């Protein structure tokens, strides 16, 4: 038995141990300023540098190869991404104006990009709240595609989001490889197999060639109407910790006969979209439940009265459901 004299000392010792453990845990969870600096450099670099190369996307046993050419200059950004596997798809971009060519069906879809999320330009600016939701650490250097890279890990502070790992070119900040991680498992990955940065890129490489645009093509303009705060008749009543609303829109999506209400949500890194559309009497009834498209993207569908609510995002199913179930119609 601990004597009365020893007990206060023993209690004080336990208190010091617990305090020390708490301080160490807090220190371990705090992102370093140099790591956050690398993250900021990575967010800015794809918009400021010329680059061209071939990258590979991998998820769920699926591999897809694409070729990219990107030019940055006084008039903004120009880009061409060509998918080299499966059905041909070619995307041309001038700043936020995009054109997607589908040569097999002779269709062109044009759209104004409302959010940046195409490898290697995958981080938003400004980088809000990232440190609140993820612990960012430098974990060494590796050579990827003949580029010396700084490796960063982003460990989520809860179960509501996935982890990430970035390999960043040390000279320019351009990401060379990106992995999305669920626990210890890589569920999605982009990686350059070949990459040249800051080379000269003529504008001829960034325009559709004559063979591509010959013949009759059907052009569809996908419109996005940005709305003011609270203009939609819908709201996400309760956000999961760390998430906030980015924007409200009305959009005409591919193959949709009516405009779709769209609410975009983010935690500063991951993005979730909520689409609300009336259920057509002539269409088959939607099937509520969970669906996984590929990699980090999960889908959750529910119905509310005569509306279909589809929640899509690069977050775990738990988070998708929390957001989707919080969507209500305003009184």
TrEMBL record:
Gene Ontology CC: one annotated term: outer membrane-bounded periplasmic space
GO MF annotation, one: antisigma factor binding
Localization per record: Periplasm
All copies of domain MucB/RseB N-terminal, residue ranges: 35-208
Principal subcellular localization: periplasm
Domain MucB/RseB C-terminal: 231-327
Keywords: Periplasm, Signal
InterPro entries: MucB/RseB_C, MucB/RseB_C_sf, MucB/RseB_N, MucB_RseB
Signal peptide: 1-25
Similarity remark: Belongs to the RseB family.
PANTHER family: PTHR38782, SIGMA-E FACTOR REGULATORY PROTEIN RSEB
Name of the protein in its database record: Sigma E regulatory protein, MucB/RseB
């Amino acid at each position: 038995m601990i004597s009365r004299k020893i007990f206060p000392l023993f209690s004080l010792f336990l208190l010091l141990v617990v305090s020390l453990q708490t301080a160490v845990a807090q220190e371990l969870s705090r992102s370093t300023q140099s790591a956050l600096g690398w993250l900021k450099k990575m967010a800015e670099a794809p918009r400021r540098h010329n680059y061209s190369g071939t990258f590979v996307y991998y998820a769920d046993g699926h591999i897809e190869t694409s070729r990219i050419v990107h030019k940055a200059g006084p008039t903004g950004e120009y880009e061409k991404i060509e998918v080299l596997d499966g059905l041909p798809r070619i995307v041309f971009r001038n700043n936020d104006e995009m054109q997607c060519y589908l040569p097999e069906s002779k269709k062109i879809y044009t759209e104004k990009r409302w959010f940046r999320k195409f490898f290697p330009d995958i981080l938003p600016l400004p980088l809000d709240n990232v440190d609140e939701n993820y612990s960012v650490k430098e974990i060494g250097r590796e050579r990827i595609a003949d580029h010396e890279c700084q490796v960063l890990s982003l460990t989520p502070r809860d179960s509501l989001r996935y982890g990430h790992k970035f390999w960043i070119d040390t000279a320019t900040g351009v990401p060379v490889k990106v992995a999305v991680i669920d626990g210890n498992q890589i569920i999605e990955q982009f990686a350059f197999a070949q990459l040249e940065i800051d080379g000269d890129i003529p504008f001829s490489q960034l325009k559709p060639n004559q063979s591509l645009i010959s013949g009759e093509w059907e052009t569809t303009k996908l419109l996005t109407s940005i709305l003011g705060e609270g203009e939609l008749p819908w709201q996400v009543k309760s956000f999961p910790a760390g998430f906030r609303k980015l924007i409200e829109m009305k959009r005409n999506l591919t193959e949709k006969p009516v405009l779709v209400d769209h609410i975009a949500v983010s935690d500063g890194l991951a993005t979730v979209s909520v689409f609300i559309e009336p259920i057509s009497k002539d269409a088959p009834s939607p099937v509520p439940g969970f669906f996984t498209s590929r990699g980090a993207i999960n889908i959750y569908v529910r119905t509310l009265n005569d509306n279909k609510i589809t929640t899509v995002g690069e977050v775990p199913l738990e988070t998708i459901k929390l957001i989707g179930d919080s969507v209500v119609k305003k009184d």
